[in-house]
Amino acid sequence: MLKRYFILLITLCWLTSHAASPTATDYSYSQCQGSAIPYPVPDMALKAIPDSLTPIFVNHVGRHGARFLSSARYTASLLSYLHKADSLGTITPAGRRLISLCRLVDERTAGHWGALDSLGMAEQRGIASRLYSLAPALFHDKKVNAISSYVPRCIASMDEFTHRLATLDNSIDISTASGRQNSPLLRPWTSDSAYIAYMDGSEWHDVYKRFVDTTAPESVAVKLLGPAYPFSPGEKKEVAMAAYKVIAGCSAMSVDPQADSFLTLPEYNALWSIVNLHHYLTHSASTLSSAPMDMAASLLRDLISTMDSAAVGANPYSVMLRFGHAETLMPLLALMRLPECYYLTDRFDTVGMHWRDFFVVPMAANLQMILLRAKSGKLYVRVDLNEHPVTLIPDRPEIYIPWETAGAYLSRCLPQQSTPHNAS
User: Fold this and answer.
1) d(CA 192, CA 200)
2) Closest by alpha carbon to 35, among 314, 375, 333?
3) Which domains are assigned to the chain?
4) Buried (b) or exposed (e) across 156-170, using 16+ Cβ within 10 A?
5) Residue 306 and residue 315 in contact, taking contact as beta carbons nearer than 8 Å
6) CB count, 10 Å around CB of 71?
7) Residue burial 190-226, b: 16+ Cβ < 10 Å; e: rest
8) Beta bridge mates, 60
9) Which of 39, 225, 242, 345 gets the most CB atoms within 10 Å of its CB?
10) List of residues 6+ apart from 226 with CB closer than 8 A
11) Can you tell me the distance from the alpha carbon of 331 to that of 188, in angstroms, rounded to the nearest whole number?
């Protein structure tokens, strides 16, 4: 009875202090999965193109689909703590349930760490089907080019996507390529010197550490290991973060973790906000540095140049597909200043209110740039984020923008006045 009272007291104290914060978020259990959230299927009615416009080209940049957990790191860490608590006799019923969940994840994922799973395959097939339905004329007797990162889940995503297109229309001429030669576009963080220097620096680490220290709910570890567990300094936060990683990653591999049996919604929000800030500081625009978004410059230049060549009939492909990672898209979307993908502030505790990884890069996240020709011959572009049309130019509400205007805007987004847009 005393143990239950102690746990309740700790939880209430943390909840009271956290609720008092004006920047605390209140997202749902589903949203708190963050970038591990399965892809949200769009309303096809929102994607319809007016009869007055004819699609002539599509650029697509996509993240791999839902996957198994990337490694056994977090289940191994949790099981180490949980087994120790069990041997000491301090473990709680929630802790025993978490042992079962970790074992299930390990069994389900054995030999498949980081691999695309059946849900991820279905996500890619669904996106391919909807793109085909949107503009079937872009595929019939046309050439499609696809490239991917060398990482197997990206290659598998490309394969599922292109295989679905081929089953819809076997007249399509599809070429695919994967490998490290695509890393400058799809994995720029491995070679961009300014980004590497930023990541090696202390400034973003200091901001992140302060946020973890003030935000991570220690009540989670106590609820799992018990109030009598002999915690060392920092272990409560380590246990809470490992629990978040395992629980948040379950739905992507079609496992229901029953998150509410381990975490209250405020605790889940707090843990999500920590991971969300890490994504933001390391792969999006911030007041600390533009290096994380600037590393997407080569990819944006490629998108502009291939749109330009399609505009003048010089691109041999009607559709170009690129398959990478969340870390491929986050910098690109920030560099383009897309709504809710670009946020600058010195108040880093407000990031979770304005920049949300579950919106920016869910599993199978994608950017589609659709080039369209009006009956007058004028060219327009529509930008879709996760298959939802979005505005491109700040303070302009138009969804369909003349390509000449859009291309010039995107060129201005490039760092250091890169190669100018060449619309004709």
Assistant:
1) 12
2) 333
3) 37-69+115-192+295-424 (3.40.50.1240)
4) bbbbbbbebbbebee
5) yes
6) 12
7) eebeebeebbeeeebeebbeebbeebbbbbbbbbbbb
8) 321, 368
9) 225
10) 3, 85, 90, 91, 92, 95
11) 10
Q: Please say whether the beta carbons of 52 and 374 come within 8 A.
A: yes
Can you state the percent helix, strand and coil of the chain, rounding each to 5?
55, 10, 35
Write the single-letter amino acid at 76.
A
CB atoms within 10 A of CB 340: 13
Band (pLDDT 50/70/90 cuts) for residue 394 is: very high
Residue with tokens 């297109």: 165
Decide the pairing of beta strands 379-385 and 366-374. antiparallel
Query: Distance between CA atoms of 161 and 60, rounded to whole angstroms?
Result: 11
3-state secondary structure (DSSP) of residue 346:
coil
- Token duo for residue 176: 């695919």
pLDDT tens for each residue of 240-291: 999 999 999 999 999 999 999 999 999 999 999 999 999 999 999 999 999 9
Residue partners of 390: CB distance under 8 A and separation at least 6: 338, 339, 383, 384, 399
Please state, in angstroms and rounded to a whole number, the distance separating the CA atoms of residues 321 and 58: 8
| 85-96 pLDDT tens trace | 999 999 999 999
Q: Shortest CA distance to 273 belongs to which of 345, 357, 344, 206? A: 357
CA distances from 178 to 149, 159, 182 (A): 6, 10, 7
What is the rounded CA–CA span in Å between residue 280 and residue 321? Answer: 25
| Residue 208 contacts residue 277 (beta carbons within 8 Å) | yes
How high is the pLDDT of residue 43?
Answer: 84
* Rounded-to-integer distance, Cα 387 and Cα 374, Å: 21
* Both structure tokens of 40: 């949200």
**Given the DSSP bridges, would you call strands 319-324 and 143-148 parallel, antiparallel or unpaired?**
parallel
Residue 343 neighbours by CB distance under 10 Å: 17
Start-to-end CA span in the chain (Å): 77
**Beta bridge mates, 61:** 322, 367
- In whole angstroms, what separates CA 369 from the centre of its chain? 18
